[in-house]
Amino acid sequence: MGQKAQAIRQRIVAAADQLFYQRGYEHTSFSDIADAVGISRGNFYYHFKTKDEILNAVIDIRVDQIQRMLDAWTYEYSDPQQRILLFIDILTNNQESIKSHGCPIGSLCTELAKLSHEMLQEANVMLAVMRDWLTDQFRALGMGADARKIAMHLLARTQGIATITNAFEDQQFLRQEVKRLRQWLDEMIAQYAN
Amino acid sequence: MGQKAQAIRQRIVAAADQLFYQRGYEHTSFSDIADAVGISRGNFYYHFKTKDEILNAVIDIRVDQIQRMLDAWTYEYSDPQQRILLFIDILTNNQESIKSHGCPIGSLCTELAKLSHEMLQEANVMLAVMRDWLTDQFRALGMGADARKIAMHLLARTQGIATITNAFEDQQFLRQEVKRLRQWLDEMIAQYAN
DNA sequence: GTCTATATACGGATAGAC
DNA sequence: GTCTATCCGTATATAGAC
Question: Which residue of B has its CA nearest to A118?
Answer without folding.
Answer: B167
